[in-house]
Structure formats: structure tokens, C-alpha cells
Amino acid sequence: MPKLIRLTRWALAALVFAFPAAAPAQGKPADNTQAERQQTQPYNNAPVWREVRKEGQEYVTTVKGRETGVLVQSAGETWRQIRNGPVTVWGGFAILIVVAVLAGIYFSFGPLKTHDKPTGRLMPRFTQFERWAHWTSAISFCVLAVSGLVMLFGKHVLLPVTGYTLFGWLASLLKNLHNFVGPVFLLSVIVMVPNLVRDNLPKSYDFNWFAKAWAMFARNEHVPSGRFNGGEKAWFWGCVVGLTLLSAVTGLILLFPNFDQTRATMQLTWIFHAISALLFMLVALGHIYVGTIGVEDAYQAMRSGYVDETWAKEHHEYWYNEMKSGARSAAGGAVPAGAPRAERK
Ligand code: HEM
Q1: What is the pLDDT of residues 114-124, one digit of tens each?
Q2: So what's the pLDDT on residue 59?
Q3: Is the pTM of this model over 0.90?
Q4: Ligand 1: residue whose CA is nearest its atom 23
Q5: Shared domain check, 48 and 113
Q6: Which of 86, 120, 224, 259 is surrounded by the most beta carbons within 10 Å?
Q7: What pLDDT is recorded for position 327?
Q8: In angstroms, rounded to a whole number, what is the distance separating the alpha carbons of residues 253 and 324?
Q9: Are residues 99 and 21 part of one domain?
Q10: What mean pLDDT do residues 64-87 have?
Q11: Cα dihedral angle (157, 263, 180, 135), rounded to 10 degrees?
């Protein structure tokens, strides 16, 4: 049956093409209707636009280029509903829930502390190069996250407060910032990752870490790990490598629309970009929590590059043993004069 319909359509189209005179007969009632409509509802061309909108219908236009004949692309409406529906609503709730859970962990259990007193002897943990690459990634990521959140939620959360003028200015500033900082973030991750791959390779004891991770936060229990624990390794491969790749590649497709991409390609790319970026932000909230207030003195590791031996022993025992036994060389060489010394709080 469908074959027959298609054939008929082709035949009809051929007919109209061959005998334009024939079409008026068909069109005549519509023209009349259109003319009548102009009388009763001037400028209301709804039937015309309904015709134009017909799924995948491509019309003739003098504008050269891909899909220029598609005046109204219906899939655009589907994209708009996904953007303003599940992506905005579920994405927004997910961020609020993660922030609430982290606040709950902090106010219920407090920061993770070492059991023993700091020795005052510091151990190099991150080289200057590693810290520079990290903070370039961290700062550019935060700029991308904030500007992305304003583009997604700004009109619901900020616009009612700022009003149109300020919001318009802010949103366009942040959109441009997003476009320029995106490549910086990607480059900084490309620079940061190779150096850290070796210490993020999975080890059997990582499974033990995952099994006991909750007890570590809830009961301040000690769980041995290598230079990076199971959680950091999952962050590294899942987010720093995986989600950077997905959000950056889709970001570049959106940033350079001059490769003849169709609207459908851009809409699908946007959906992957938004979802991968939201997932990245959700997990990064956990990383930032642990890297600032969640684990005492963790911040120092990436700030100064040094940690106290007690901290190293209690949080990364196998790495501590390797460093002490000389099985591996110190990342940053001797402790420089004036390096900060950990004080017991
Ligand atoms: C404000 C945001 C951030 C803060 C405060 C922060 C803090 C930290 C701290 C304190 C450490 C050291 C943890 C340790 O000694 O084991 C660390 C490690 C690390 N951070 Fe961040 N970070 C932030 C954002 C980011 C972002 C956006 C990325 C990547 C895109 C990132 C990637 C890493 C990596 C790869 C490590 C090493 C751990 C591993 O390789 O598994 N960080 N961060």
C-alpha cells in the first residue's frame, strides 16, 4: 500500500509539474480559502505554514546550501522540548540533589581527618607541571560550568532577578567566554592526562577501596591505596578522559557550524554535549568537595605539591611505602626551604 501511495504522490507531483493549469483547479479552493482567510483573519497564513512544515518537505529556494529548502524543520520542536524538558528539569534536580548529599555528608560526618598527628615531614606529591596543568583545567572547567549553567538555567533562575537587559548582557558575555575557554580546557586536559596515566592504571586493591569507601567517609576508617585511590581513578578515566572527550568533541562541532552540518546533527550534538557536561559537573562536585573541605589537607597536595607523611600514609599507604622504600622517585625532588608545614588543627 505505502508503495502505491508514494507512486501516487509522485504521479500527482508529476502531474502538477506537467500541467500547472491542473494545479490551480486543485489549488483554487485553497487559494479561495486563503483569500477568504485574509478577509476574516488578515496575515494568518497558518495553512501555508502547516504545508511548509510537513515532515521533511524540501521546497525550492534560491538560497544555495544544504537543507536550505527546508523552511521549518519539525525536529527542531522535538529538540526544544527535550532541552526545556528532561535536560533542564532532570539536570537541575540532579545538581541540587548532589549538592544536598555532599552537604549532608559534610554536616553529618565532617571532613575526613588523619588519625595520627602530622610528622611535619613533607612528601612531594604533585610536580609544578602537574599542578599548573591541573589548575588550568580546574579553572577553565569552572568557567565552562558556570557559563553553561547560565545558558541552560539562566532564564529560569537569573532573568527574574536581573531583568532582561542585564541578563542579555551577561548571557552573551558568558556564551562567548564559553566558546573561547572550551578549547583551553581541552588543551589543558590533553597536557595533564599523559603524566597521570601510569598512576591511574587499575590495581586489584582498588576493588577493596570501592568496597570500603563508604566506611571511610562515615567512620573515618583507613583504606589503603596507591598514589590515587579507586575513586580518583574512576574520576580520571570516566570524567577527565571519557567525558572530556565527549563534551569537547560535541562542543567543537557546535563551535564550528561551518562544516555543512544539518540542523538535525546540531540538535543531536547539543543533546550529547549538554548531557555529558551535566554528568561531568555532577561528578566534579564530588571531586571539588573532596579536594577542598571533604578531606583535610587534600587541597594542600594540589596547592603546594606537598603532603605530610602522616597524610600520605593514611590516605595512600601503598604510594607512601613506595616513596619511603625508594621504589619510586619523588615527583618533585627535595622539599624546598619555606615549603608549608602541616599543623594539627
Ligand atoms: C575547583 C575545582 C577543583 C579542585 C578544588 C580540585 C582539587 C584537587 C585536589 C586537591 C587534588 C589532589 C588529590 C590527591 O592528592 O590525591 C586533585 C587531583 C586531581 N584533579 Fe582536581 N580539582 C578541581 C577540578 C578538577 C578538574 C576540572 C579536573 C579535570 C578536568 C581535575 C582533575 C584532577 C586529576 C586528574 C587529579 C589527579 C588525581 C587522579 O589523577 O586520579 N580536577 N584535584
Answers
A1: 999 999 999 99
A2: 80
A3: no
A4: 138
A5: no
A6: 224
A7: 85
A8: 48
A9: no
A10: 90
A11: 70
**Ligand 1 within 6 A of CB of 191:** no
What are 48's three cell numbers?
Answer: 501555508
Q: What is the DSSP letter of 261?
A: -
In a domain, 192, yes or no: no
The residue-averaged pLDDT of 54-67 equals 78
136, 293, 302: residue to mutate for ligand 1 pocket, most atoms within 8 A of CB? 302
Ligand 1 lined by 316 (C-beta under 6 Å):
no
Domain at 120, CATH number: 1.20.950.20
* Alpha carbons 234 and 245: distance in angstroms, whole number: 15
Same domain, 123 and 10: no
Query: Containing domain of residue 231, as a range?
Result: 75-127+197-325
DSSP 307: E
Residue 219 has pLDDT above 50, yes or no: yes
Contacts 24+ apart (CB under 8 A), 230-237: 230/206, 231/290, 232/200, 233/200, 233/201, 233/202, 233/206, 235/283, 235/286, 235/287, 236/193, 236/196, 236/200, 237/200
Could you identify the atom of ligand 1 that is nearest to the CA of residue 236?
41
In the predicted structure, residue 33 carries a pLDDT above the cut 90: no
DSSP-based three-state secondary structure for 220: coil
Region 86-103: mean pLDDT is 96
Please give the grid coordinates belonging to residue 309: 607523611
Number of domains observed in the structure of the chain: 2
Cα 160 to the chain's mean position, in Å?
25
- 59, 69 Cβ separation under 8 angstroms: yes
Pocket flag, ligand 1, residue 291 (CB < 6 Å): yes
Residue 301 lies in a domain: yes
Instruction: Determine if residue 253 is left, alpha or beta; phi over 0 gives left, psi from -120 to 50 gives alpha, anything else beta.
Output: alpha
For residue 24, pLDDT over 90 is answered with no
Average pLDDT for residues 178-190, to the nearest whole number?
A: 98
